Amino acid sequence: MFHTSYIEIRKSAYKQNLKFLRNQVGEKVKISSVIKGNAYGHGIENMVLIAESAGIRHFSAYSTDEAKRVKHSSTKKSEIMIMGMIDDVSLPWVLENDISFYVFEFERLKVAIDMAKRLNKKALIHVEVETGFHRTGYEWEEKEKLAKILKENEPYISLEGLCTHYAGAESISNYVRVKKQIDRYNEFKQWFFDHGVKFKIHHTACSAATLSYPDTIMDMVRIGIAQYGYWPSQETYMYNFKNLEENQKNPLKRLISWKSKVMSLKKVKMGDFIGYGTSFMASRDMTIALVPIGYSHGFSRNLSNLGKVLIHGKIVPVVGTVTMNSISVDITDIKEVEKGDEVVIIGRQKRNEITIASFGESTQQVNYELLTRLPQDIPRKIIA
Ligand SMILES: *Cc1c(COP(=O)(O)O)cnc(C)c1O
Predict the structure, then answer these.
(1) What's the gap in Å between 174 CA and the centre of ligand 1?
(2) Which residues surround ligand 1 with Cβ inside 6 Å?
(3) How far apart are CA 368 and CA 171, in angstroms?
C-alpha cells in the first residue's frame, strides 16, 4: 500500500443501522442521510454509494462543495439539501441543479429570489425558524414580513420545507429547552398554516431527537451520527435500552475500521526514554513496535501514553508521545510480532475491539469530532 493506513467501511453495518432507524420512524417518513463533514469522516462518495444501495434518496449537506460531491456520486437522482453555507457565486449552480437549501435571513432570501428570476428557475427553499438553538433561523417577530415576501414571490420559490434544529436533544439536561423549541416550532407551523403559507414537508429531527422525542419526527428526519453506527450520547442509548429487543441490545453497528501495520521493531533497555522528551521511561527491558500513524492522521497527541491499539488480537498501549507520523507501542508481552503485522487502531481483531467511544473517552473527543478529523486522504475501502 502507498499509504500508511487505511479505513474499511462496512456496508452490511449500514444496512442494519438503517433497518433499526426505519423501524423507529415508520414506513412513511423520509430519512435524509446527513453527509456533512466528509460524511462524518467516512467519505461522501462512499456513503452516497452505500446509502443509495440501502434505499436512501435524500442527502443533507452543510455547504455547496459537499452538495457537489453528492451530485457527482449519486446514481439514483437523489434529492440534495444544503443546510448551511452557500456563497452567492455558487447559488446559480445550486438552482440549476435543483438543490434545495435552507433560508434563514432576508438577505439570502432576496438573493435567492433575484437569482431565480434571472435563471427562470424556482428556488427550492426550506424556511428555517428560530426556536431556541440561536444559531440560524427566522425570529418569531419576523414571520409577518417573511410571509409577505414568500407570497409576493410565489412564482420564483417552491416552499419545500419548514425546519428547525434542536439544541441538545441528546441530553435530558436540555429537556426543558428542547420542549420549548418543539412548542415554538408548532406555533410557527400553525401560524403559517393559518396565514396560507403552505410547506411541502415539516422536518426538525436529528438522530437524538428522532430517538428520544418521537413528536419531532414529522415528515422527514435528518439522520447523521446514528446511520454511521453511534448513539448520539450514552444517555440516548440508555433511554432507548428498555425498548430494544433482548437479542439485539445494540442495534447500531460501527461502519468504520482503521488499520495500519507494524513498520519496525526495536529493543530498549530498562531506564531508556522512548520518543521525544522524558514522558516515558522504560521500567524494564522492552520491545517496541513503531506504527506509522500519528497526529497528522487524526491520532490525537492527547493519546500520548494513553492510546491503545490491537496487535495479534491483544490490546497494547502507546508509549511516549504521539508524533506527527508515528506512535510507539509496547509489545514486550506479545510473542513473535513481525514487521508488517496488522495493527488495528479502531475496530475488531480476534476477540478484542477498540471502539470510537473508548478511543474518544481517553481524549474527551466525542464521536463526531474524532470521526470528522480522520483525514480525507487516508484510503477508504468499502467492504461487504
Ligand atoms: C448535523 C445536523 C443534523 C444531524 O445530526 P446528528 O446528530 O448527527 O444526527 C441534523 N440537522 C442539522 C441542521 C444538522 O446540522
Answers:
(1) 16
(2) 34, 36, 83, 165, 206-208, 222-226, 232
(3) 15
Across 334-348, average pLDDT: 96
Q: Which atom of ligand 1 is nearest to the CA of 40?
A: 8
| Residue (of 129, 136, 62, 135) closest to 99 by Cα position | 62
pTM of the prediction?
0.94
Q: Is the pLDDT of residue 68 over 90?
A: yes
Q: Indicate which atom in ligand 1 lies nearest the CA of residue 102.
A: 13
1 pLDDT above the threshold of 90: no
Q: What structural domains and CATH numbers belong to the chain?
A: 11-241 (3.20.20.10), 256-354 (2.40.37.10)
- Residue labelled with grid coordinates 441530553: 171
Q: Which residues make beta-bridge pairs with 164?
A: none
Residues for the chain: how many in total? 384
pLDDT in tens, 21-36: 999 999 999 999 999 9
- Give the phi and the psi of residue 46 in degrees, each rounded to 5: -60, -45
> What does the block give as the cell for 320?
511516549
Cross-strand pairs, 81: 60, 100
